[in-house]
Amino acid sequence: MVASSGTYIALARPLRMGMCMLATVSPGARLTFFAHAQPVLLSHKCDGSLLDLEFHYSTLDTREHIVKLWTACRKAMAMSLSFQQNHSPSKLPPSPRARHDRFQSDLVAKRLLSGPLLEISVGSEGKKWHIHHNLLRHHSNFFDENDLVDGEEKRIKDGKVDLTKEDPNAFRILVKWLYQGQIEDVSKLDKDKKWDYAWACQNLYILCEHIGIRELKNLAIDQFRKGCYETRLVPGADEIRPVYERLPANSPFRKLVGRIAARQLMDPDSRRDAAIYRDCFTAAPDFAIDVLNAIRDGTEGLLLDDPTEGNSCRYHEHQNGETCYKTVRFQSNK
Question: Which residues contact 3 (CB under 8 A, 6 or more apart)?
C-alpha cells in the first residue's frame, strides 16, 4: 500500500470496531484496501504527520477481514520502516534510558490493546461499539467491575455496557481520544461544522462526567468555548438544560454557561429579555442563581440606583398610560 505521494503508510493495529490508531503519511494521501472481495474504505484527515483512518466492513466474515487487513498493514509498516531507514539521515543511536522508556511504553500499549472487548450500546438507537476493556479500565474506574459502591447496580453485565442516554457523536470523539490520544481542533473544521462539533463537545463533557475521565473533560470544555467564540453562537435554553440536569453543582461547565447567559442579558446591543430562559429557571433554579452571581461579578460591584429615592411614579399604577407628571398639580406661592 502506497500513498499517492509515494510515501509508504505505517499503520498501527486496526481494531474490531473500525478504528486505526496512527499513520505516518504525506498530506493529501488516499488509500483503498480490498479484502475478501469486499472494499475496506479508509477515510482520511491528514495534517501532515497524522492520518485519522476509519475502515468499514461487512458483518460477514468480519474476523477474516480484520486478519487480512492487519496482515497487509504489518507489511506496509515494515516497508515504511525500511524506507525510512534507507532514506533518513544518520542519527545517533538512542540512549539506554530512551530504549528502556520505549520498551515500557510498548509493553503498556500491548497490554491495553489486548484482552476482551466490551460491547457498549450508545444513543437512543443503541449503536454497538466494541472497545478494549483494558483500555477503558486504564482511563476510568467506571469500567472496573470491582469499583462499585455498596448497593450500586452493576454497570457491566455479560460484557455489555448501556450508555444509551449518551450522545453518539460525543462517544465517537471519546473513542478517537482513547485510541489516538487527541481530539479534533474546532478551528480546523469547516465553518458549517463548528457549532455541531462544539455541541458534541458539550455532550462529551457530560459523558466524561458520567464515566469519570477528567483529562478529556478539560479538552472538551476548551473546544466548546473555542467553538462558541469562532461561530459567535451560544447555547440556548434547550442546550443549557442538560448541563444543569446532569452535572454537579460545582461543575465548571455550569459556571461557564451561567456566565454566557449573563453576558447575553447584559449586552446593550441585543437587549434580550430574561424570559428566554424562563424554562431553564423553572427546571433548574441553580441556573438563575448562577446567572445573577455572574452579573454581580461582571459588574465589579457597580451599585444600581437606589429604588427608594428619586421618581416614585415608576412604582405607581395609572390608567390609560398616564403618569404622575400629568396628574399632579402644585399650588402657587402667590
Answer: 9, 25, 26, 29, 30, 31
Tally the residues of the chain. Answer: 334
pLDDT string in tens for the chain (334-residue length): 333 333 333 333 333 333 343 333 334 444 433 333 333 333 333 333 333 344 443 344 455 665 666 666 666 666 555 555 555 555 566 676 776 566 566 667 788 888 899 999 999 999 999 999 999 999 999 998 887 655 567 888 889 999 999 999 999 999 999 999 999 999 999 999 999 999 999 999 999 999 999 999 999 999 999 999 999 999 998 999 999 999 999 999 999 999 999 998 888 887 788 888 998 899 899 999 999 999 888 888 788 788 888 778 888 887 876 777 654 444 555 4
The b/e string for 57-84 (b: 16+ C-beta within 10 A; e otherwise) is: beeeeeeebbebbbebbeebbeebeeee
What's the CA gap between 231 and 198, in Å, rounded? 9
Q: Where are the domains of the chain?
A: 10-89
